[in-house]
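Q: I'm building a small set of examples for a reading group on sequence design. Run inverse folding on the following structure and report the sequence directly after it, with nothing in between.
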């Protein structure tokens, strides 16, 4: 499919009959052509032919695809080395904020993900046909994106003439621009919506040589599934990856591609991450509701989304009701490292009347799929260093269950599973001893897609938390221009910083660990909780959204999800003492040292999660402390602050 519905040089476009241009646009349109859309295109053709007839060269494209967000730019005009994005709102009498953000989002998307646009000046133009003429102040950002220009049907021509006379760049080939590779890096919400609409993962994932292509992982899993079907085998696959590498996206893609009821291989995406499930379901339902030509009921859209993404606890509870095999032949378990130990599972089951339950959650989940007499496949998505809650077993519990009870299952892993953040100190040979295992390197995603500005963020955070100062310094210096990380001791400065960095609808928010209980004096009340669907999905005018910087998301709310810019509020629960990080918990009126080794790990990982949630950059808020409050003494914070400064993190 062509990226644009119509593309041509300006001279040919201006001399063509409007009906001829409309015919080509209509032929490339994948959807039913409605009268309103047809009339809109005719209107745009006429006004653009009039506005561009004085230009001797350049190119014009109609309905240019933005794969990452599933939308199309009305028009792209290329002239004298500059990219002009022209978005029409026919019949509009004002310049709506959403429309201004829309055209700016298009410019940002091209700048970040379209190779031939990355080093070009981009000028977004919003044409609200019946709006009043306003005086635009021409401003542009350091990366060459201009603030949106606003005009109407009467002054589009003069606006373009003024802009083209004032700005120019190095001329480039319009044809090469049209054929440029597109390297989108969607948020997990955008990716889920695109896959749910039927897009292929190749449309929404990076394809450059520097990143592992998610399709390779999907293909590897599909080959294993096909082999199991053919030979009537049972297999378990472990997809590992650095934070933000696309493990959840890979899982969603597999669930979507193998969702075949007729072929007896119903696949389902299961997650114990409640906020992730709630946010993705709501996002899918909202998207389908808003895009449907004949509006479906919101409740019907939600129920449909629930069949695609399910809570793992509901899956488990259904399996307790009978010994029958589930309808699913392929199950994808998100964040498998967070599955519970036998002690935690037994405690949970006892509270629900199952007092004789003595299996770990990995063992029980495997037992459910083992009920199938012919074949079954389990796909475990594993994030190293992501265990953040009491009773989370980590990766070794899965191998223990397989070795003790399911030696008939094939095991597929990558070599990178040897990293200690996956093994928790165990040797790979020890974990895989006695198992029928296979090494497939494509099951590891080594490059972060969340931090598309720099793949080094997770490595920097790892060095920071491991007190590897030389390495942390080196990485910070390398990434700070592409991925800003700042430090402040004033919360208002942090708020202003993220607001100044965000453009268009880029999302920003306030985060802190669930143990940051003495930040309440600054209005950061982690105990109050958030409604994830509102925090992650609602717009900038909604007080419940992340944009208001009032409600604070903790590691439990934000794990598996991401925002563009974040404030990480750092409390005394994880502080530097005598040159090492020391974990504390606040109970009653004082801080208590955390002695339990597992709980120490959970707190370290809580900060690992918080420091890897931002796609574009973050700022750490480290308060000063107060001599008048024994729970917030200055030395609780100063050593950590000085450590961050020692690494080189710049303060504002």
């Amino acid at each position: 499919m062509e990226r644009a519905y119509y593309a041509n040089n300006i001279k040919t476009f201006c001399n063509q009959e409007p009906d001829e241009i409309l015919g080509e646009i209509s032929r490339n349109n994948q959807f039913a052509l409605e009268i309103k859309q047809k009339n809109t295109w005719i209107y745009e053709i006429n006004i653009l032919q009039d506005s561009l007839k004085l230009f001797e060269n350049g190119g014009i494209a109609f309905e240019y695809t933005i794969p990452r967000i599933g939308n199309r730019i009305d028009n792209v005009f290329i002239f004298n080395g500059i990219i002009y994005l022209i978005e029409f709102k026919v019949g509009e009498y004002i310049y709506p904020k959403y429309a201004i953000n829309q055209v700016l989002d298009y410019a940002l998307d091209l700048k970040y993900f379209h190779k031939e646009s990355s080093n070009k000046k981009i000028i977004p133009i919003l044409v609200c046909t019946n709006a009043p003429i306003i005086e635009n102040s021409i401003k542009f950002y350091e990366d060459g994106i201009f603030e949106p220009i606003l005009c109407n049907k009467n002054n589009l021509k003069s606006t373009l003439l003024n802009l083209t006379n004032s700005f120019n760049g190095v001329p480039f080939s319009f044809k090469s621009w049209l054929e440029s590779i597109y390297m989108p890096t969607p948020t997990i919400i955008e990716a889920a919506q695109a896959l749910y609409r039927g897009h292929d993962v190749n449309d929404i994932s990076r394809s450059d040589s520097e990143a592992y292509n998610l399709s390779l992982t999907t293909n590897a899993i599909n080959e294993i599934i096909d082999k199991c079907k053919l030979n009537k085998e049972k297999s378990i696959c472990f997809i590992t990856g650095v934070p933000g590498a696309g493990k959840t996206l890979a899982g969603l893609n597999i669930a979507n591609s193998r969702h075949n009821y007729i072929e007896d291989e119903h696949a389902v995406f299961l997650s114990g991450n409640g906020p992730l499930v709630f946010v993705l379901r709501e996002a899918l339902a909202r998207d389908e509701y808003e895009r449907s030509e004949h509006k479906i009921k919101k409740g019907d859209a939600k129920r449909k989304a629930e069949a695609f993404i399910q809570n793992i606890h509901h899956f488990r509870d259904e399996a307790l009701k009978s010994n029958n095999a589930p309808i699913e032949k392929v199950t994808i378990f998100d964040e498998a490292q967070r599955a519970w130990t036998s002690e935690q599972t037994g405690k949970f089951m006892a509270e629900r009347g199952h007092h004789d339950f003595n299996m770990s959650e990995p063992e029980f989940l495997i037992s459910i799929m083992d009920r199938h007499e012919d074949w079954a496949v389990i796909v475990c998505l594993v994030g190293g260093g992501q265990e953040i809650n009491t009773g989370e077993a980590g990766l070794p519990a899965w191998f223990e269950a397989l070795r003790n009870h399911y030696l008939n299952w094939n095991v597929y892993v990558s070599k990178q599973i040897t990293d200690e953040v996956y093994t928790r100190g165990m040797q790979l040979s020890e974990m895989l001893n006695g198992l029928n295992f296979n090494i497939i390197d494509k099951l590891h995603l080594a490059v972060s897609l969340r931090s598309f500005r720099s793949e080094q963020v997770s490595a920097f955070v790892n060095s920071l938390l491991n007190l590897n100062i030389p390495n942390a310094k080196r990485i910070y210096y390398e990434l700070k221009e592409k991925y800003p990380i700042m430090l402040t001791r004033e919360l208002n400065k942090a708020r202003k910083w993220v607001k100044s960095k965000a453009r268009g609808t880029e999302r920003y928010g306030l985060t802190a660990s669930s143990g940051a209980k003495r930040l309440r004096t600054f209005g950061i009340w982690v105990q109050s909780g958030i409604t994830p669907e509102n925090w992650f999905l609602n717009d900038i005018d909604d007080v419940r959204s992340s944009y208001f910087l009032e409600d604070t998301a903790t590691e439990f709310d934000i794990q598996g999800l991401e925002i563009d810019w974040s404030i990480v509020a750092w409390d005394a629960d994880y502080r530097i003492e005598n040159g090492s990080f020391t974990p504390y918990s606040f109970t009653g009126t004082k801080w208590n040292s955390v002695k339990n080794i597992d709980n120490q790990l959970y707190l370290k990982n809580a900060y690992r999660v918080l420091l890897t949630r931002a796609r574009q950059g973050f700022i750490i808020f480290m308060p000063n402390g107060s001599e008048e409050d024994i729970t917030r003494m200055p030395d609780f914070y100063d050593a950590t602050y000085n450590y961050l400064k020692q690494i080189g993190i710049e303060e504002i």
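The longest helix spans residues 35-52.
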